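Provenance and format

Records in this collection were gathered into a single text stream. Each protein contributes a sequence line and a token line. The two records reproduced below are adjacent in the stream.
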Amino acid sequence: MKRPNFIAEQARNARGPVGRIVAFIMARETWAQNQRSMAALDVRNGETVVDVGCGHGRSLAALSEMTPDGLVVGVDPSELMAEIAARRVRSLIRAGRADVAVASVEKLPFVDGSFDKALCVHVLYFWPDLGPALAEIARVLKLGGRLALLFRTSASPATASFPPEIYRFRSLGEVTAALADAGLEVQETTDIGDCVLFTAERRRATA
């Protein structure tokens, strides 16, 4: 059964009471995949980490436990999701260990080389163009910095239940090529259920 468009739209840009309900559901239904993706980052204490498309912010607290002397930052285009995430980690924000920003992936509000690690789970479907999005993530990563990118490919049967007007599923080849163009070299590919988890490292300066 295909998801209704209004629910899918809330996943892309949550708003209002329905958005709060969607955030509550998302915090639970994808948690195991978030945990696998965070583990793949191999976060070390003192490192800086950005969660691009952080949504409800549940991963921010878990990432902060991995780097108690570092900084974890969540970014989401939805003001509602950013509000929910900031409330979830408000004690970490007060302690200077976390922050949350409202921004699109194409315009991340950070200087070049700000982060050691970057996390992206189930968000690339909402990017109009992979190139600018991945180039921007590469820009804010340090050389040698690592990205964990989890997504469903266009080959997954599960994609039939998502409205194509809102979700755009790419092939494995498309994502691999876009990563390479952004200067991100795939180090490992892992199948997690009907999803793929890439870990990639920034190997060259972006243009």
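Adjacent record:
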Amino acid sequence: MKHSPRLWTVVGCSLMAASLGAGATACGPGDNPLSARPYDAGDQVAFNQAQGGRPVDHNRPLEVTAKSAGGRITDVTAVDGLGRRLAGELTATGDRWHSTAPMAAGTRYTVTVSTEDERGAPGQRTLTFDTTPAKKVLRVEFGPSDGKYGVGQPITAELDEPVTDRAARAVVEKGLVVDTPPGVEGAWHWVDDKHLHFRPKEYWPAHSTVSVRSNLEGVRITGAMHGAASKPVRLEIGDRVEVLTDAASHSLTFKRNGEVINTIPVTTGKPGFSTRNGVKVVLGKQYFVRMRGDTVGIGGSENYDLPVYYATRVTWSGEYVHAAPWSVGSQGYENVSHGCTGMSTGNAAWFFENITEGDVVQVVNSIGEDMPAFGNGYGDWNMNWKDWRQGSALLKDTQDGRTPADQARLRPRV
């Protein structure tokens, strides 16, 4: 006869009870101290912070001690108003716990202390208190704004105060959290003391979602300066659009998701005004722009003042892809512009309708200078990945300089 697991459990308990005597309750919950509800451990533990009342100094470490020789602390969790857990260390004997990181400023902490007495019965005590506000704050503004972008769009972070110390930069960088599709590797790069850019190793995956938020609110960055709250940003990535302009063959190739969908005859910058080589990211689009040579330092016989339509901007210094009906005879044959990429009005209208901010526009075979990584638009993709990662304050030194990115910089979206 096959017995069920339930029957065997009952028989086993009955036999044990019989062997222990009529008064034994070995199988019942009452004699197991771990099964009891936690008792109030208020008499067992002491805090160096007072509950309620005036805010406590955020610079003062949090400390919890066991008052009773017969009991000990088993665990302490200290969580602030944003759900961030305060790091701490418990002694091996369980008589003391202390924080190992600064408390956040201007927030409320909830501290839960778990204990056990000499019988092993669990106890618990909870304390809440507020911390003093920061005397000085660091604000972060993310860019671009919420919206739909191409696969080449970097994320930017602008600080309202310079941060020069490497340790302080590491604190800032850890607090700037980028949520990306699984498997995407990326890193922050310090452009200067107040600006950071984030990009993945390769272009963003098409039709993905990327968001960035700050976890710096109340966090000590350096001295008396703490982080302030920041507005998060969410990017919806569209098709993988890649434009390749060949200045030598005077042609522009438009690819969407790996497929060539249009090839357009163009003219680029003539000698002395050659278009910059390299990868550029679309900064924006304007149906009409009045272009004047003197605004970019071009005067004399080369000066111009033209109404331009269907203008797609790729540098801050004034390089566009736009309609140039005055040079249709040269498009596909020679370079006659002052640095922009010109095409017929019909082709420019088509390009304008199919290009999106954040899409990639690359120029090759020009005799001009190379597009810089920073300072004239988004040339971020012109820097190789190893050099890009060297711009992170979280990069750990190794023999070959190639270590995994710190996980605080890149948290996959789940």
